[in-house]
Design a protein that fits this description.
Number of helices: 11
GO molecular function: oxidoreductase activity, acting on paired donors, with incorporation or reduction of molecular oxygen
Protein name: Luciferase family oxidoreductase, group 1
InterPro entries: Bact_Lucif_Oxidored, CmoO-like, Luciferase-like_dom, Luciferase-like_sf
Radius of gyration: 19 Å
CATH topology: TIM Barrel
Family: To bacterial alkanal monooxygenase alpha and beta chains.
Pfam families: Bac_luciferase
Oligomer: single chain
Strand content: 15-25%
Shape: globular
Structural class: alpha/beta
CATH architecture: Alpha-Beta Barrel
Number of domains: 1
Length: about 325
């Protein structure tokens, strides 16, 4: 069985290097992904994180589209609750006009940063009455489809081919929303690798009448030997902080977890150390895991992320994964 492979990048910054070096790595990775036959190259959105340079995916998308020729470039994803749907529609219509039939709009609803950054991004919103994500997505969909309410301004320019639309989520609720709007659905398996939740979400998309493609995001690292791969991935940890109001979020370090609780004004919190779900090993090992996921869930495309700890070896990893893979033959 064959499937497509795509990449997700967060532009991780190594210790003692400028952010520009991380962005240059992202550019080189996108160009090599195109050469290797990957279908898409997506960039993420994170705020006030000194370890990541990807704070404005729409800017990076424009630059990457100009530095590549064929590969689809997109967001994984734009965090819609921070923004005006009209402005997002304008931005991606412009991108799709500059790079016809190559732009993907992936939308998410996570915070993408600690509470102080979220408050700064939403400064003009009433914190007591935050907009509902479902309403924001419906408004954005209307602008992109040129069917907004009477009296609303058009989101110009109108591109020759509309950006492809993907809703990113890790729950059946997100899957049903994607189906209701007629969007493609991406299950964030790199955030929630629980097979039961994955299956329930993909089933929910199908039962809700979803007609788009279903993609599965995974974290993977490939090395010449399984031992080399495990040396990188075995030490990985995720710190899940749960506040006294029940809100939970995954963070990269115990210090980030404590800072999140402080900025949120939590009177108390607890932290749980978890092991992230990572596909790790030789190219044969990882492709075998992807084959099994393809057979179990019926997905025809994977979005592959790489652990930040493997930043300096990422190009080698994606090259090994692509080598001889029937997934990239097309």
């Amino acid at each position: 069985m064959t499937y497509a492979l795509s990449l997700l990048d967060k532009s991780p910054i190594l210790a003692d290097e400028p952010a520009g070096a991380a962005l240059q790595r992202t550019i080189a990775l996108a160009q090599n992904a195109e050469r290797l036959g990957y279908k898409r190259f997506w960039v993420a959105e994170h705020h006030a994180n000194p370890g990541l340079a990807s704070s404005a995916p729409e800017i990076l998308i424009a630059y990457l589209a100009a530095r590549t020729q064929r590969i689809r470039i997109g967001s994984g994803g734009v965090l819609l609750p921070h923004y005006s749907p009209y402005k997002v529609a304008e931005t991606f219509n412009l991108l799709a006009t500059l790079a016809p039939d190559r732009i993907d709009l992936g939308i998410g609803k996570a915070f993408g940063g600690l509470p102080d950054a979220t408050r700064a991004l939403r400064r003009l919103q009433d914190p007591a009455r935050p907009p509902r994500f479902e309403e924001l997505l419906a408004e954005l969909d209307g602008y992109l489809a040129s069917r907004s309410e009477a009296g609303s301004p058009p989101a110009l320019p109108v591109p020759p081919a509309a950006p492809e639309r993907f809703l990113l989520g890790a729950s059946p609720e997100s899957a049903r929303l994607a189906a209701a709007r007629g969007w493609h659905f991406v299950f964030a398996g790199q955030l929630n690798g629980d097979p039961g939740v994955t299956e329930a979400s993909l089933d929910a998309y199908a039962k809700a009448g979803g007609t788009g493609e279903v993609l599965l995001a995974v974290t993977a690292f490939v090395a010449p030997t399984a031992e080399e791969a495990r040396a990188v991935t075995d030490p990985l940890k995720v710190f899940r902080v749960t506040l006294d109001d029940g809100q939970s979020v995954n963070l990269g370090t115990e210090e980030q977890a404590a800072e999140y609780a402080r900025q949120a004004g939590a009177a108390s919190y607890r932290t749980e150390i978890r092991r992230p779900h990572v596909l790790s090993g030789t190219a044969e090992d990882v492709r075998g895991e992807l084959d099994r996921l393809r057979a179990r869930f019926g997905v025809r495309e994977f979005i592959v992320d790489t652990p930040p700890s493997a930043t300096t070896r990422r190009l080698a990893s994606v090259t090994l994964l692509a080598g001889g893979a029937s997934a990239l033959a097309a």
